[in-house]
Design a protein that fits this description.
Layout lengths: L14 H18 L5 H6 L4 H16 L5 H7 L2 H22 L5 H29 L6 H28 L5 H18 L26 H18 L5 H21 L5 H21 L3 H29 L5 H27 L3 H30 L3
Helix pairs in contact: 1-6, 1-7, 1-8, 3-6, 3-13, 5-6, 5-8, 6-13, 7-10, 7-12, 9-12, 9-13, 9-14, 10-12, 11-12, 11-14, 12-13, 13-14
């Protein structure tokens, strides 16, 4: 029994945390399952630019519920807000999958907007509130870091699942698997009991709390530049082996953080990750060898994992203690904004030309590197709070 005067030392990796981390994996995988097939499906009926806008509108939807997130989790029970947002996400996915080739364009945009709103709200509540509430205060940085890695692996698991399903010749099953993942995530959240918390005396209906950290705007831009390059890279049609090797790259990034960068200079992680991503892109330009098909996604996964994990810690250390949830949401929005922008640009202009696509992606990597080297790192050191 824990008392006010007894220090609490509970393992982070207990049932509640596992359930929420797996829920994050399932939710994010269900959304990323769209990456290999959405553009192709849209282009069967709509023009290239209409399809690109439909991809981008999802990114707009991510931001729309953010200002109301703090009000909702204080006015209503936190887990119920997450559950209802997952239900809305699943319903919008069902409409999208089964009506994308038949619905009017305005209806398509509305559904894509709902996709973004549902995913944005459930992620903000899950990552900035529920996961933090299941652990002790001294474990929260580890909890944020670990749970986000589950979502990062979804970038390979989601598209891989889609490609494996499509190999069976039953593309409609992608919809069922995606919605099943969302329902499973909802059940995991439902299985956890969260204590009731009385709302603050004055609760604003719209605020930046749990939504966006203004102090992190330059980190947001720098992260979005990197993930735009990643999104452009992922618009290149790939086989299932690509996503398997991308996962190997993620594992390599985890090992590198533990053994390579443990005592390294702070700047080295981001610079190394950007260089690895640049090497992955240059491989696509310089050679047609089979080895490139294996090494390029490994380098891309390692670079993405290293940069993503370090930027998350930057956001956390830039915020005050009471802003931890806000820093999580800002990181999530920066990651998804860039990824969506890259997928949209790739769909609009460069999908038919792999070399052009890679060149543009490489340009964004160079911009991200230059911004970090010349400005962001120094600015962060001057402004961090922890």
């Amino acid at each position: 029994m824990y008392t006010q005067n007894t220090p609490v030392h509970v393992s982070l990796w207990r049932r509640e945390f596992w359930y929420l981390a797996i829920a994050n994996l399932l939710l994010t995988s269900s959304v990323y399952m769209l990456i290999p097939v959405l553009s192709d499906r849209l282009l069967t009926r709509y023009t290239t630019w209409q399809s690109a806008v439909a991809v981008a509108v999802y990114g707009v939807g991510l931001f729309l519920p953010g200002g109301f997130c703090s009000y909702l989790v204080q006015r209503y029970r936190r887990n119920r807000v997450c559950i209802w947002s997952i239900i809305a996400l699943a319903a919008s996915f069902a409409v999208l999958y089964y009506g994308a080739g038949r619905m009017p364009y305005a209806a398509l945009l509305a559904v894509r907007l709902l996709n973004g709103m549902g995913f944005g709200l459930c992620q903000m509540v899950l990552m900035s509130t529920l996961i933090i509430d299941t652990c002790e205060s001294f474990q929260r940085t580890e909890a944020n870091h670990s749970a986000t890695w589950f979502g990062r692996f979804a970038l390979s698991l989601g598209p891989l699942a889609t490609l494996l399903i499509c190999q069976t010749g039953n593309g409609a099953s992608v919809a069922l698997v995606s919605i099943a993942c969302q329902i499973a995530a909802m059940l995991l959240v439902l299985s956890i009991r969260f204590p009731f918390r009385a709302p603050e005396e004055t609760v604003c209906k719209f605020s930046l709390d749990r939504f966006f950290l203004p102090e992190g705007k330059w980190l947001f831009v720098n992260l979005a530049l990197f993930t735009t390059a990643l999104g452009l890279f992922l618009t290149i049609p790939q086989k299932s082996m690509f996503y398997c090797m991308l996962m190997v790259g993620f594992l390599a990034a985890l090992l590198a953080q533990k053994f390579v960068f443990i005592n390294a200079e702070l700047k080295s992680e981001v610079v190394s990750g950007l260089l690895l991503m640049g090497c992955a892109l240059l491989m696509q330009l310089s050679s047609r060898e089979v080895a490139v098909d294996y090494l390029s996604p490994v380098f891309a996964g390692a670079g993405t994992g290293i940069v993503g994990a370090r930027f998350l810690l930057f956001f956390i250390k830039l915020s005050w203690h009471c802003q931890r949830g806000t820093s999580q949401s800002t990181y999530f929005l920066g990651w998804e904004t860039g990824l969506t922008l890259g997928l949209s640009i790739g769909c609009a202009c460069f999908r038919s030309s792999t070399h052009t696509l890679v060149f543009v992606s490489l340009t964004f990597i160079i911009l991200a590197w230059a911004m970090y080297q010349l400005f962001t790192h120094t600015w962060y050191l001057k402004n961090k709070n922890r």
